[in-house]
Design brief:
about 500 residues, alpha+beta, Immunoglobulin-like, 4 domains, 9 helices, about 30% strand
C-alpha cells in the first residue's frame, strides 16, 4: 500500500490509515475482554441466586424427610450425595479462580486479564498435561461419573449431564480432532478462562436445581396416584353387643364422593352396596370376640384396574367397660384451633355422657365436642357415664398438643417455584396455605420480604407488592428468580410460627 509510484503525501495517508486500523483492532480487543468480564459478573450473580433457591429446596426436602422418613428418606439420601459432589466440585473451581487471578490487583479491570501464559503453564506441558491439568480433567470427569452413579443410568437427566460436562475430543474438521482441554483453554486470555470456569459452576448449580426440583415434584405426583390410596373402615361404633348389626362405611383415605369403585371384595366375597363413593357396611356382628373387616376396592386408572386394599377390626363384647375417645381430624389436637372431638360409649347416648377437659377448654357441638388446648404439652379428656344396669364407667384419654405446622407461601394458589410473567406478579397477592392440613383455616398474610437478584431486599406490609417493591421488580429480567420469604401470617387469628418461602421464575 505504501509502495509503487505514490506521492509522499499519499504514502503518509496510507501509513496513517494502517495505524488507525491497528488502533481500532486494539480497542476491539479491550472491548472483547470487558465483555467476557461482564458476562462473568452476570454468571456469578446468577449462581448466587440459584444457590439460594437450591438451599430452600434442600431444606424443604430435609423437613419432609424428618416428618415422613419412609416416603422422603430415600430421596434425601440421594439429594445429600448430589449436594456433596456438587459442593466439592464447585469449591475446587472457586479455588482455581482465586489462584489464577491472585496477582491481579484490581479484579474488576478485565483489560488486564489478556495474558494467557499463567493457565498455559498451569495446565500444559509440551503436548501433554501438567499434574494440575490432569487434575482439572479428572475433576470434571469424576463429577459427571458420580452424578450418573447417584441418579442411575436410566435417569432422564443423563443426556443433560453428559452434554454440560462433556470432555470428548473436539472436531476440527477434515477428520482432525483436538483434545478437549487444549481446545478449550490453551492460548486463551485469562478472562475467557475465568468466565468459562464460572459457567461450569453455573452448570453445577443448574444441574442441582433441576434434579432436586424433580425429586420433590416426582414424589408429589406419586402421592396423588391411585396406587397410594388406602381404604379406611369407618364404623358407627367400635364395640357391639351379640346379635347387633355392624354398621358403618368404607372410604378412601382421600375421600371423593364422585369417585366410584368398579368392584369391591369384602371378606373374600363380592360386595355391591355402594353410595356416594363409600362402601356401605351392613353385616351381622356375630358372637363375642374380635372380628376383621378386610378386602379390596378396585378403581379404574388409565384404563387399568388399580387395587386398593383395606383392613380393620372390631370387637363384639358382652358389656362395655370404658368410653371410646377419638380425634375427628388427627391423632393430636392443635393449639389455637377448635379441635372436633367425638366421645362415644356403646349403649349410652351422647347426651348422657359427662365429659370434661383438663389442660384446655371443652364445649359441646351437636352430638360431639370442641376442645381448645391451653399452653401445656397435653390435653386430657375425662368421660363418665352410668350404664342401664346401674354400673358407673369412667375413662380418660390424653392427647398431645402441637402448634399449627409450617405454612407454605404461594402465588396464584401455587407453591414452591412458580413460573409467571412480571406483570402477573406485580398485581398478584401473596398468600399462604397448608395444602395437606385437614382444618379449614383462614390464613391472612401480614407482611413479607421480596428479593430481586442484584437489588436490595424490600420489606412489604400487607399481602400485595408496595410501590417500592414494584420499582425493584421492574429491574428484574426474564429467567430471574424472585424470592418471597420472611412471610408473616395469621391462621384464624393465631400467629403462624413459620411460613415457607415461594420463588417466582419470571417468564418475560
Amino acid at each position: 500500500m505504501a509502495g509503487g509510484k505514490m506521492s509522499a503525501r499519499q504514502k503518509m495517508i496510507n501509513l496513517m490509515y494502517l495505524v488507525f486500523i491497528a488502533m481500532l483492532a486494539m480497542q476491539m480487543d479491550k472491548e472483547v475482554l470487558s465483555a467476557f468480564g461482564y458476562t462473568n459478573e452476570k454468571l456469578v450473580d446468577n449462581n448466587l441466586s440459584t444457590a439460594e433457591k437450591n438451599a430452600l429446596a434442600y431444606t424443604n426436602l430435609s423437613t419432609k424427610a424428618s416428618e415422613q422418613p419412609a416416603k422422603f428418606g430415600p430421596l434425601k439420601q440421594k439429594a445429600d450425595k448430589i449436594k456433596e459432589y456438587s459442593s466439592e466440585y464447585y469449591q475446587y473451581l472457586a479455588a482455581l479462580k482465586i489462584k489464577m487471578t491472585a496477582e491481579i490487583e484490581d479484579k474488576d479491570d478485565y483489560e488486564q486479564m489478556d495474558k494467557m501464559d499463567w493457565l498455559d503453564a498451569h495446565f500444559f506441558k509440551g503436548d501433554g498435561y501438567t499434574i494440575e491439568g490432569q487434575e482439572f480433567l479428572d475433576n470434571i470427569n469424576g463429577y459427571r461419573t458420580n452424578m450418573i452413579q447417584v441418579l442411575g443410568a436410566n435417569s432422564k437427566f443423563i443426556p443433560a449431564i453428559n452434554d454440560r460436562f462433556n470432555t470428548e475430543d473436539v472436531d476440527r474438521g477434515g477428520n482432525k480432532t483436538e483434545k478437549w482441554l487444549k481446545a478449550r483453554y490453551e492460548g486463551f486470555p485469562m478472562v475467557a478462562s475465568l468466565t468459562n470456569f464460572t459457567q461450569i459452576q453455573a452448570d453445577i448449580k443448574n444441574t442441582e436445581s433441576d434434579i432436586i426440583s424433580d425429586l420433590l415434584g416426582g414424589q408429589l405426583e406419586s402421592e396423588v396416584s391411585m396406587s397410594n390410596y388406602n381404604g379406611v373402615v369407618q364404623l358407627d361404633k367400635n364395640a357391639f353387643y351379640p346379635g347387633d348389626k355392624v354398621t358403618g362405611s368404607i372410604v378412601l383415605g382421600r375421600y371423593d364422593p364422585n369417585l366410584k369403585p368398579s368392584r369391591v371384595e369384602l371378606n373374600g366375597k363380592n360386595y355391591e352396596n355402594f353410595k356416594d363413593g363409600s362402601v356401605i357396611l351392613d353385616l351381622n356382628a356375630g358372637g363375642v370376640g374380635d372380628k376383621d373387616i378386610k378386602g379390596t376396592i378396585y378403581f379404574m386408572e388409565n384404563g387399568e384396574e388399580v387395587p386398593v386394599p383395606f383392613k380393620s377390626s372390631y370387637s363384639v363384647i358382652a358389656e362395655p367397660s370404658s368410653a371410646v375417645v377419638s380425634a375427628d381430624k388427627m391423632n393430636v389436637v392443635y393449639r389455637g384451633l377448635d379441635n372436633p372431638i367425638s366421645v362415644s360409649l356403646p349403649g349410652v347416648s351422647s347426651g348422657d355422657l359427662n365429659v370434661s377437659a383438663s389442660g384446655g377448654k371443652l364445649s359441646r357441638s351437636g352430638s360431639g365436642f370442641i376442645v381448645r388446648p391451653g399452653g401445656g404439652a397435653t390435653t386430657k379428656i375425662n368421660v363418665s357415664a352410668t350404664l342401664s344396669s346401674g354400673k358407673k364407667v369412667t375413662s380418660s384419654s390424653t392427647f398431645r398438643v402441637k402448634d399449627i405446622p409450617a405454612a407454605m407461601g404461594s402465588v396464584r394458589g401455587q407453591y414452591g417455584t412458580v413460573r409467571m410473567p412480571k406483570s402477573g406478579l406485580t398485581n398478584a397477592p401473596i398468600t399462604a396455605g397448608l395444602p395437606d392440613f385437614e382444618f379449614d383455616l383462614k390464613i391472612r398474610v401480614q407482611s413479607f420480604k421480596i428479593k430481586v437478584p442484584g437489588e436490595l431486599t424490600i420489606i412489604v406490609n400487607g399481602d400485595k407488592l408496595s410501590a417500592a417493591a414494584k420499582k425493584v421488580l421492574s429491574k428484574a429480567r426474564r429467567g430471574d428468580i424472585i424470592n418471597i420469604y420472611g412471610i408473616k401470617a395469621t391462621a384464624n387469628g393465631t400467629n403462624l410460627k413459620k411460613v415457607l418461602p415461594v420463588n417466582i421464575e419470571l417468564t418475560n
